[in-house]
């Protein structure tokens, strides 16, 4: 074991000892012992509040977590990533999604060239100047992708609901024919632009949907040359052109942009169509502000670093197995699903950077829904379940829609109340004082001491959505370093795809071998 390994082991051991000493301490006691705790354990960044005072940590906990970050080389690895060095060692790739968010004058010329083509296409589609095969203006954009090629733009578009564009934007990701049929029923081939988004341009689900859509276009338009109504976003432009996309309607992105980190690239084309180029630049500027904060702020004052450290504390020292994300904002309905992919595909690993089995757990399960709906779904478990699940609450100080201000006040009251109830609970004496009958006391006591953080921004805007996404992106990167895993590959999705090829061939009466359980299922399907 080398010196760095010794330092990491010592840092983890010190945290373990501290966690055992802290185990019996309740959040009520922590707040009683420090009247300024809500100030001490919170950070602000230009209208953004990160309040982690309801986490089960003390000043000593933070000292030990910062020591762990240094022992694991967070500062060194941060510098390597931001300098464009290969940090995705299993594929020998740099990770440079932050370079997409630089101001135009600092961007790589190749990035600017793609941005210019993206802008021209978006403006033409927004204005009605983009014409289809039969001369009609294209009013609908159909975005075909899956995973990082779908969740990011889908989430962001739902969040920002920009209505200035004349184009209507639709998403198709699932291989299920039901979604395909429903989508086509909403569209007219004469005024639909199809955008195929696939990094490799070989993604089976996306290309199967693309083939069906292409056949629909040709059949509906009565011609084979439908290139005027197809475009592509890909790192394999030649494949896209061979498939039938005109070269000037291919928007490239690069191997150094991972799919789940790609929203600032041409993958975000639907967002540019909806927001316009200026709105998209505001979105990138929000991301850039957090990139600068992440790069420059000391670890103790660095919001994404602290988010990462608190997640590690809850998972590895407090025994949490999952993490709930609850935006009190209907517009962020897709945000928990977006984070689910971002975090679990990045850090859901069991092998470390040396190819050895991990000594401790990595990414917890990420899940959630919007408040207040979530309160009537899974909050019973959060408050009185047999184990604690940490939460992130996300809210906005001001509503985007000013028509119903009382609703927004009630929404924020619920957010604050749920965080308070999770932290402090209600004991028997308090329940009795609230009028709970003695016979019901066992069921109406709340243990509290359940950790949560609050991320509060002033208003949901493109700039603030960019900041929110970048916070979680950098959190994921830091946690990958702390857990000693490579965050920018996803080999775990490969095996099922390979087996699916064999199963499909078997279903087509070809002869590749399948296991006995799969063969039994196929036999049943053949008789159904």
Architecture overview:
The chain has 528 residues and is α/β, with parallel strands linked by helices. It is built from 20 helices and 13 strands. The strands form three sheets. The chain has a six-stranded mixed sheet, with helices on both faces. The N and C termini lie far apart (58 Å).
Supply database-style keywords.
528 residues, alpha/beta, six-stranded mixed beta sheet, five-stranded parallel beta sheet, 20 helices
Q: How helix-rich are the residues, as a percent range?
A: 40-55%
Average pLDDT, to the nearest integer? 95
DSSP helical segment count:
20
> How far apart are the first and last residues' alpha carbons, in Å?
58 Å
Structural class: alpha/beta
Task: Furnish the topology, listing elements before pairings.
Elements: H1 3-22, H2 27-33, H3 37-40, E1 42-44, E2 48-51, H4 59-71, H5 74-82, E3 86-88, E4 93-94, H6 109-127, E5 140-144, H7 151-160, E6 168-172, H8 177-185, E7 192-197, H9 204-221, E8 230-234, H10 237-243, E9 250-252, H11 269-296, H12 303-317, E10 322-327, H13 335-347, E11 365-368, H14 379-384, E12 391-396, H15 405-424, H16 428-433, H17 441-444, E13 452-457, H18 462-483, H19 494-507, H20 516-527
Parallel strand pairs: 5-6, 5-7, 7-8, 8-9, 10-11, 10-12, 12-13
Antiparallel strand pairs: 1-2, 2-13, 3-4
Helix pairs in contact: 1-4, 6-11, 7-11, 7-13, 11-18, 12-18, 13-18
């Amino acid at each position: 074991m080398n010196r760095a390994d010794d330092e990491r082991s010592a840092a983890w051991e010190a945290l373990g000892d501290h966690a055992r000493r802290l185990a019996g301490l309740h959040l009520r006691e922590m707040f009683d012992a420090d009247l300024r705790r809500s100030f001490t354990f919170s950070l602000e960044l230009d209208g953004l509040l990160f309040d982690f005072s309801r986490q089960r940590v003390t000043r000593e906990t933070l000292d030990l977590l910062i020591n762990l970050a240094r022992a694991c080389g967070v500062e060194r690895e941060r510098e390597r990533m931001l300098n464009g060095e290969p940090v995705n060692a299993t594929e020998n790739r740099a990770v440079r999604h932050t370079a997409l968010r630089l101001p135009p004058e600092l961007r790589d010329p190749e990035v600017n060239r793609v941005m210019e083509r993206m802008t021209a296409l978006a403006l033409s589609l927004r204005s009605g100047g983009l014409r289809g095969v039969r001369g009609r203006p294209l009013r609908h954009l159909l975005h075909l992708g899956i995973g990082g090629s779908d969740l990011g733009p889908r989430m962001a578009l739902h969040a920002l609901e920009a209505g200035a564009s004349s184009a209507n934007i639709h998403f198709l990701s699932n291989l299920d024919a039901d979604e395909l049929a429903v989508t086509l029923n909403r569209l007219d081939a004469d005024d639909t632009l199809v955008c195929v988004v696939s990094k490799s341009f070989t993604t089976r689900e996306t290309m199967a949907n693309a083939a069906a859509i292409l056949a629909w276009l040709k059949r509906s338009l009565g011609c084979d040359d439908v290139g005027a109504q197809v475009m592509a976003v890909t790192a394999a432009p030649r494949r896209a052109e061979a498939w039938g996309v005109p070269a000037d309607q291919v928007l490239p992105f690069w191997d150094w942009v991972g799919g789940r980190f790609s929203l600032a690239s041409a993958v975000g084309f639907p967002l540019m169509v909806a927001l316009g180029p200026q709105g998209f630049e505001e979105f990138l500027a929000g991301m850039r502000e957090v990139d600068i904060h992440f790069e420059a702020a000391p670890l103790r004052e660095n919001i994404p670093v602290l988010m990462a450290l608190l997640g590690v504390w809850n998972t590895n020292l407090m025994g949490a197995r999952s993490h709930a994300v609850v935006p009190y904002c209907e517009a962020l309905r897709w945000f928990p699903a977006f984070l689910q992919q971002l975090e679990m595909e990045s850090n859901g690993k069991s092998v470390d950077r040396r190819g050895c089995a991990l000594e401790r757990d990595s990414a917890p399960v990420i899940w959630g829904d919007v408040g207040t709906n979530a309160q009537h779904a899974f909050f019973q478990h959060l408050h009185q379940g047999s184990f604690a699940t940490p939460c992130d609450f996300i809210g906005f100080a001001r509503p985007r829609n000013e028509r119903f201000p009382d609703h927004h006040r009630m929404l924020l009251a619920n957010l604050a109340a749920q965080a308070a109830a999770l932290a402090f609970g209600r004991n028997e004496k308090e329940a009795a004082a609230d009028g709970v009958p003695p016979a019901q006391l066992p069921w109406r006591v709340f243990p509290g001491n359940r950790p949560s953080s609050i991320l509060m921004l002033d208003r949901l805007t493109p700039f603030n959505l960019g900041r929110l996404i970048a916070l979680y992106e950098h959190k994921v990167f830091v946690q990958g370093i702390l857990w000693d895993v490579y965050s920018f590959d996803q080999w775990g999705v490969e095996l099922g795809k390979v087996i699916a090829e064999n199963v499909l061939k078997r279903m087509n009466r070809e002869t590749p071998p399948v296991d006995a359980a799969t063969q039994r299922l196929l036999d049943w399907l053949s008789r159904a």
